[in-house]
Amino acid sequence: MTTKMRILQLLQQADGKLISGGEIAEQLSISRTAVWKQISALQQEGYRITAEQGKGYLLEKSDVLSAYEVERRLTTHTIGHPIHYFPSIDSTNLYAKRTPGLENGSIVVASQQTDGIGRLSRKFYSPEKMGVYLSIVLHPEQIAFSDVSTITLLTAVAMIDTIEQLTGVRPGIKWTNDIYLHGRKLCGILTEATIEGESGMIRSIIVGIGLNLYQQYTDFEPEIRDIAGSVLSETGVRVNPADYVAKLAENFEKYYLDQHFPENKHSFLKRYKEALFFLGQTVTVSSVREEYSAVAEGINENGELIVRREDGRMETLNSGEIRLKLNLKDYR
Ligand code: BTN
Ligand 1: which of 113, 175, 184, 187 to mutate, most ligand atoms within 8 Å of CB? Predict the structure, then answer.
């Protein structure tokens, strides 16, 4: 472990109390100047360390995102082991797809994406230190193709559990992959699979999750300003990014590994359905072929949405082809 990390550990162990430069220097057998240099480096990384003349250093609560900060909070056995952290990257999903050898359960996480990707090849705005952008890498032993999209639903449930545990507020889900609160989108999920050409087997699944943490409405691009929100803007809670990643890993592991996906489909689909906030409402369904109004009735055992057209006909919608528009004014 580097000297800088050992100093950080000593400050963390002091648990909100002052620790003198002399004591740190003595414990690590280095000079006080060396201590001060490393403290400056930690401050550069975002740690809020105050120095009190003649008394020592104090580490205050800091919202630092790093592999170390996530890993020390993890309670999981597989998900999040290891964490690959990047202050900035093009896209965590792209990185996961182009990097061979990433372990089952590893998480690629970034504080900024310069080329974040959303569903249907849309752009996903991923500004620096406003949100957390991550991809969970899975190498399932055997998985049916139809279950890949169900992982998106599992992830949505793990996400709303996580946000509720961290803020006390349970968001809703917009079928299939968006998390909403007060009619504003906080989070998007993009699940991608890589398939081996020869055998047609699924080699890996990459679950990409982008969460807005700290934006106020004016921080969003004008085109999404009316529909986007953040955890802070909608709950008033400033969530620590490392707490969030560790909690999400825990919830994801529970549904995906501990409760044995896909055998547990029924139990999390029940929770998924309970969180759909527009059931019974009229929505606009749009596919390449047509656009029509229908009442959202529920989901089936594959997570497909069932709607009733104005003439009474029932339709089962598959997320691949359909976009759903809600009259969001109703939900504010
Ligand atoms: C959507 O809302 O359409 C899905 C958005 C998914 C965004 C996440 S951020 C982490 C991962 N990397 C990406 O480029 N996209 C996903």
Answer: 113
Q: Reply yes or no on whether the pLDDT at 200 is more than 90.
A: no
Nearest to 181 by CA among 232, 223, 243: 232
Q: Tell me if the bond preceding 262 is cis, omega within 30° of 0.
A: yes
Does pLDDT of 324 surpass 50? Answer: yes
Strand pairing category for 83-86 and 107-110: parallel
Tokens of 176: 């299939």
Cα 73–Cα 74–Cα 79 angle in degrees, nearest 5: 150
54 band by pLDDT with thresholds 50, 70 and 90: confident
Nearest atom in ligand 1 to the alpha carbon of residue 122 is 3
Query: Across-strand partners of 191?
Result: 207
Could you give the residue ranges of the DSSP H alpha helices within 63-213? 67-71, 92-98, 145-167
Strands 202-212 and 314-317 come out as unpaired
Q: Are 294 and 315 in contact (CB under 8 A)?
A: yes
Residues near ligand 1 (Cβ within 6 A): 91-93, 113, 116-119, 122, 124, 133-135, 178, 188-190, 208-210
Which residue do the tokens 């089952």 mark?
104
* Atom from ligand 1 closest to the CA of residue 117: 14
Helix (H) or strand (E) holding 298: strand 291-299
How many whole angstroms from 134 Cα to the centroid of ligand 1? 8
User: For the chain, what is the total number of helices (H) and then of strands (E)?
Assistant: 9, 14
Interval between CA 128 and ligand 1 midpoint (Å)? 15
Q: H-helix or E-strand containing 186?
A: strand 184-195
Q: Are 295 and 305 in contact (CB under 8 A)?
A: no
Amino acid identity, residue 214?
Answer: Y
Q: How far is the CA of 197 from the centre of ligand 1 (A)?
A: 25
